[in-house]
Amino acid sequence: MEDKQKTLYEPNKYCIQDVTTIYIGAKYSLGEILDAEEIPFKLRLLVERDIMPKADAQDSLESHLYYLEPDSFLVKLYEQLKAKVKINIIEEKRSLLGKAKKMYTTQNVSVKKLAEMNFAEKQKKGVVVQELMVSKLSLLGM
User: Which of 10, 34, 81, 82 is the most buried (most CB within 10 A)?
Assistant: First the structure.
């Protein structure tokens, strides 16, 4: 009898690559990133060598990015990687009749821009981090 391997898919725990970018779901903990085979080796090495000493292995990527300080070394590292973050944010939209309606919209912002928002502003806008996008070319240069 064959042993069939069962793959468990969890929401926002993924790694997808296209020609220029690596997309990592924000629900991964930093420790899980080190163990995930689908994440490229160079990125796992970068997490182990540069990010883990300044963060906890149990932190999710979502909380790690959410609470970054704007002047930290990690923000500079993410800038070098040309990393962007996909976030959901509450914005007020107006209909044709002028009624205001609050809706979640998806935006891609730089890690620096996310870090520059203070905690109260993030809570007011209802910021939810969905994924980290890293440039393959920048990763190659690290």
Answer: 81
pLDDT over threshold 60, residue 2: no
- The answer to whether residue 53 is domain-embedded is yes
The CATH number assigned to the domain holding 73 equals 3.30.465.10
| Domain, as residue range, for 128 | 15-141
Pairing of strands 84-94, 21-25: unpaired
Taking only the tens place, the pLDDT of each residue in 88-99 is 988 888 877 778
The answer to whether the predicted template modeling score (pTM) of the entire model surpasses 0.85 is no
- Residue 6 token pair: 């069962």
- CA dist 28 and 34 (Å) reads 10
Look at residues 33, 64, 37, 65 and name the one whose alpha carbon lies nearest to residue 49: 33
Amino acid at 36: A
**CA gap 119, 37 in Å, rounded:** 33
The alpha carbon torsion through 47, 53, 54, 55 (nearest 10 deg) reads: 70
